[in-house]
Amino acid sequence: MLALKDEKELTRAPTPAKSTNASKPAGKSTSSVGKQVESASSSHRKKRARVQEEHEAEVSDDDVRDQAYSEEVSDQEQETDGEESDEPTKIVSKKRQPKKAAATTPKKRPTKSVAKAPSRSKSLIIKTPTTQRSISASAPKTDFEHARNRLHVKAVPDSLPCREDEFLEIQEHLESAIEDGTGSCIYISGVPGTGKTATVHEVIRSLQAKAEEGEISPFQFVEINGMKVTEPSYAYVLLWMALSEQKVTANHALQLLEKQFSTPGPRRLPCVVLMDELDLLVTSKQTVMYNFFEWPNWLHSRLIVVAVANTMDLPERMLSNKVSSRLGLTRINFQPYSYQQLVKIVESRLEGIQAFRREAIEFAARKVGAVSGDARRALDICRRAVEIVETNAQKAEDQRRLKAERNPFEDLGPAPDPEQVTIRTVDQAIKEMFASPNVRLIQTASLHQKLFLVALTARLRRLGLAEVEFSEIAHAHLQMCRLHNIEPPMLSELSAICASLGSSRCLLVESGKQDLHQRVRLSVSEEDVIMALKIDPLFRRLLDTLPSAPAT
Ligand SMILES: Nc1ncnc2c1ncn2[C@@H]1O[C@H](COP(=O)(O)OP(=O)(O)OP(=O)(O)O)[C@@H](O)[C@H]1O
Ligand SMILES: [Mg+2]
To answer: Polar residues compositional bias: what residue ranges (predicted)?
Structure first.
């Protein structure tokens, strides 16, 4: 019999919310929700944030710099006076980012310069650090290397085929808001890999180029990624920092933002904020999301919010229907790519590169189109197929060399050219990615069984242990449910789920003990869990927030 009845007993008591004295815009009624930095779920938020932080640290140097940059702010939390200035305090001249796949795009940090009134003719853009990363520092030597670089999901593509309509719609929306100097909010939804982030980035690049040419008014661009912020309220800190270069606490940033958005600032530049991975910025009270949707409606904000999420009805689910309809969001839904569109996307990445047979690309696109329409997945499969061809070619070359060493007088002729990627190679890549019987077993598990496996993996990684107690997993499981609006199971149900995973040999559970202290470990590999679940949009999101695996 389990001692605990519900998740509350597993969750630490929330810290009381601090009140703020933020000023309100004239004539606007701001909900009390919008007046406080939520702390009710701060303990689980902090945990999640730490988890993400560690995950980020493993990803790339750029990410490390990003995080360090973010942490610098919280470490140095200086309460500064928020006197509003109409003039920007940091202006960075805008350079168009190179669009080559393998191009190195160094991150820029805002640099101070003498504040000047923005002028249409000047190509000045205030920028936050970009999210682009380098893929390969050295120039690719072979078609395969070239293909691998171009197919990398982090590579910035030369074009975004099949997203022309969405591109235009977003561009027109942002351009008119920038030109009118009004606030505005656009909500973009779509399942993973449908090009939401890529399209918004491309629109911003295009608008920055136009501003540089003096075709449109200058504007600021700030990107806040739910995956990267250590805590949802940190979004306030980032926005205020981008607007003012002041490093303040989240509470103070909220006050200063509200003060600025409710005060006339005729010379203030419009600010486009990309709130990416918005799903991860939701909080129990929805304060952050609410504020970012609400501020564009304030008369003096000039805030243009581009909110990007996977869920189509996130505003309705998280805010009340009444509030979300009052916010008047412009909505765009990105549909999953069809097979034909995936072919186009992969082919456009491979333009001028002779690494693939056309039918191999079609095969990959068909497989992905039938399941998810996720361009990221199609690119990953094709990239893996290239690696397989390269490995095979390397093996053949090694054998040739060995033979030559053994029979120095035998003429082996010229080395054969490596094969192109064929349907067989793509098939092998797909099988590799999904093949193991454990992967199939996990894929057939129920939603809560899968969540339990992810919760266990998260705890194992977090603690760096081989096994953890049931209570630890239950805690993580219930947090995930709450975060993703999934009906949580009772603890007794969770215990049954754990037992069922034990009998199907996904888990090893301590026998003879069915309480909170029962020790549990994975019986399948972590890799199998990840492989099996990352095809599912919800689980991919959860897996993305797992702490990094300890180095072996
Ligand atoms: N139309 C397209 N043309 C070329 N590449 C594309 C296209 N759509 C998506 N991609 C590529 O697919 C990958 C995933 O795209 P992106 O990150 O924009 O997806 P997303 O919709 O933001 O997914 P998520 O919801 O997971 O954040 C990126 O590498 C992107 O460049
Ligand atoms: Mg995205």
So the answer is: 17-34, 128-139
